[in-house]
## 1
Amino acid sequence: MKLTVSRPNDLYYPLTKIQYKEKNMLKLTVLLCTFTFMSSSQAATRVFYTGFENGTTSDLDYSKCTVVKTAPDGTGPKSGNYQLSCNWNGTTDWNDPQTLLDSQINSWPYTNEFFLRFWSRADADVDSNDGSKLFRLSSNSDNDEMYAACQYEYGPASAPLFMAWYIDGGPLGQSSVYYGGEERCGPNKWNKYEIYVKHDSDNTNGIVRVWVNSVMIFERVNVNTNTPGAKWYPFTFPSNWSSNPGWEHDANNHTLWDNIEIFSDSASGTSATGLMSDATISVSDRTAEPVTPPTGLRILQN
Ligand SMILES: [Ca+2]
Ligand SMILES: [Ca+2]
Ligand SMILES: [Ca+2]
């Protein structure tokens, strides 16, 4: 951070009392800014990351999904060479493992705050029946739960994202918050999802926020956000429901996933800069992330 103050007269005249005070205030401001920057950069670390670039699901705790280079509709990953491909088969019995080919991250280190970021895309084969949940964050208390559903039943032009949170068994917020346009939940477009959770300490000072493609679509502040002792995991994705009567799907409904990362107030992960609370958090070492090489380049010679 570099502050420039242009006051040429200061160079030639002794400082007045007020100027002296201003100068010291400036020093204090610089000091505070530096301290704030250092605090935000050291407060959180990245405790989980996968872009599936080892070609397997080994970074996940559980997965029936497969790592692929190309999705069924021919689309490549968000970045790098690989992506995770999940499918729910709505033609099988409810208890057939083929009904739901999903994945899970069981837990991650955090005390009171975490930030989850991932990219997801609906393949062209996703149908427009009910029950198409994008993901679920469950609590080990059984009283807290959050889920998001991409409502493809509204039609391919809209597919709103439905967000629901339940704390201590009661609703914190339930709303269909995101409709239509280019920023729709789906289909066929890579979307970035970000979730920030801060536990309350007295049932009145918790925070939850959700962003889609960097636009905040859901926010609750100064609320009860968790049951004492509970944590907001596992993270299950997708979490689709085929067996509810009337919610049947056909055999192929793929969702693609890439670049899943979790930051938290734990000091155990990779160093990061920015804040979790406003979704600016990122790892300082971007070389750790794969970059999709440009295609279609031509070398022009004079
Ligand atoms: Ca990847
Ligand atoms: Ca389908
Ligand atoms: Ca609470």
Note: The chain has two domains: 1-44+291-302, 45-271.
## 2
Amino acid sequence: MEEKLSVGFALIGCGLMGDRHAQVLSSITNARIISAYDLDESRGKNFSEKYKCQYSSEIEDAINREDVDAVLIASPSYLHAEQAMNAGKLEKHVLIEKPLATEIESCKSLIQFFEDKELNLSVVSQKRFHPDVQSLKLALEQNLLGEIFLFEVSINYHRDDHYFEEAPWRSSGHESGGGVLMNQGIHYLDLLLWMLGPYKKISGFTKTVRPDYREEDLAVGIVELVNGTLGVMTASTVTYPNSPEQLSLYGTLGSCTIVEGKGIVDWSHKDGIKQPEFKNDLEIPKEIPSKLFSMYRNHSDFVESILCSKETKVPVRESMAVVQFVKDFYEVSS
Ligand SMILES: NC(=O)c1ccc[n+]([C@@H]2O[C@H](COP(=O)([O-])OP(=O)(O)OC[C@H]3O[C@@H](n4cnc5c(N)ncnc54)[C@H](O)[C@@H]3O)[C@@H](O)[C@H]2O)c1
């Protein structure tokens, strides 16, 4: 069989994230955007002009092409499962925006289907690819902070009315899968489970503060992990002003705090051991803005996984685990 040198993508959903994905994919040497589909035809056409790809007025026509190897799904969350399954049936690899799907049964069916077909299925999890997050993960793998007994996470955003009005699906529980936990909190919850391991018990409260909003825009939780670590978390889209996400880990040998946009702001070790350095082995093109560096690493990994027939660095079962975490949180707080 001829060796594949680049991955052709169909992009489904040309909104806020679709545009970011396209910026990134068009700068990856061995990726090409071939086609695009959006339910909103004028948006899809503008996008296709901007990124010099083919707009199809039918989703299947965008995907079912020989030059398309993979599909990137950036449509509203309730569509992820069905669109990914259809792409899989057309023998395409799939990279989906978070969440993998809004229902656990759909996550399971997708995972089984893609495993049986030996196709790659992965969820965009760009925060895992941030150099400071990678450095902290390395520190944990090397047990530098000792036994972690406490974590604190705060994901306290402010999303204004415009954010919900410009895309009404964002405030529909059915279409987005929930409120702040499923839509914003999920990134840091994913980091927690990835770094510290599975959870055992959650207790928490959710609340709707914004008058015209139906889902939770505030969540406060206490979590016990299987390894005994205890943690507290808050997530919100209603606190003012928008605050950077923050994660602190406390271990028997030291502690570490990461703040979004600032990186590791505090690393303290009883014996003065420094945090491990993240070795950057990927050159990022100049045209990529710094806020998309982690996305660039994420997508490069997905492209490489297809070209080299290997697993991505974001195993899809871990992406299902975080959806389950959110569902369990909803269950205990209802
Ligand atoms: N990774 C991240 O940091 C991040 C951030 C924000 C959103 N997201 C996720 O990305 C996805 C998209 O979010 P967004 O903020 O870009 O939304 P958006 O509303 O800006 O864009 C969604 C696009 O999908 C289109 N669409 C609607 N129905 C469609 C259909 N049936 N088929 C194809 N396209 C359809 C809409 O017209 C719109 O252009 C969501 O799943 C969201 O959870 C991820």
Note: The radius of gyration is 20 Å.
## 3
Amino acid sequence: MSRAPAIEAVDVRRSYDLGAEQVHALRGVSFTVSDGEYAAIIGPSGSGKSTLMHLLGCLDRPTSGTLRVDGRDVAALSDAELARLRNEAIGFVFQAFQLLSRSSALDNVALPLLYRGVPRAERRERAEAALRAVNLGHRLGHRPTQMSGGEQQRVAIARALVGEPRILLADEPTGNLDSRNGAEVMRILEELNAVSGVAVVLVTHDAEVAARARRQVRVRDGLVELDTAAANPAQEPVPDPARGGRVAAAGEERA
Ligand SMILES: Nc1ncnc2c1ncn2[C@@H]1O[C@H](COP(=O)(O)OP(=O)(O)O)[C@@H](O)[C@H]1O
Ligand SMILES: [Mg+2]
């Protein structure tokens, strides 16, 4: 049996009800993310990027449409099931790091494993390995306030990946970093994607960061305006000269 895609969105909509007014943040978004992909979501401020990331990260549910994450239809899951899917399938990296300021790097990274019921010694071992993977093996006992922004974001990446998720989501991961630290964070994300095959979907305003991704998805006014994966000629049906240039229909045999 072939495995379901990491993410499958079909006509996903999300509206916010503000009493007198409805804000249609997403107005029918469809795309698929496969294992090992590396995609950048770009688009102007207010276009719906964060709304989309929250949906993909199972922090929220669509108003309508179908969203499958790791093969599970999120609309059919209870809050507890959704939390469990989030814990097991997804790692999330935020612009502002969102670390616990009074906890060490090691404890921050081990936290998702605590929620998962992993025993203490194993939590420590795996958190240490995750911190080494982001070149922070020498900062295990440091608290966030004792680290640079770049280091804090690397701790957040280790926390996102310690549970070996299928999908890593990052909303403006370099937004609070200077260019040198931003480049280091991007290098680490690219390396982790290449080594572990975790699918990476990130939102960015930075044209350089977006250009480095293998796939770009441009969002505008709550719709996907451009998806370079969909535009990839290798995936486009090829007109067949033997049929007068007619494109074979799906499932139709070539003569
Ligand atoms: N919790 C919310 N309540 C009401 N409106 C919201 C909420 N979150 C986002 N919006 C609105 O939805 C639209 C998309 O926002 P957002 O997804 O944050 O865009 P982006 O991340 O691309 O800047 C904006 O018009 C924004 O004001
Ligand atoms: Mg945003």
Note: Residues 16, 18, 23, 25, 43, 45-51 surround adenosine-5'-diphosphate (ligand 1) (CB under 6 Å).
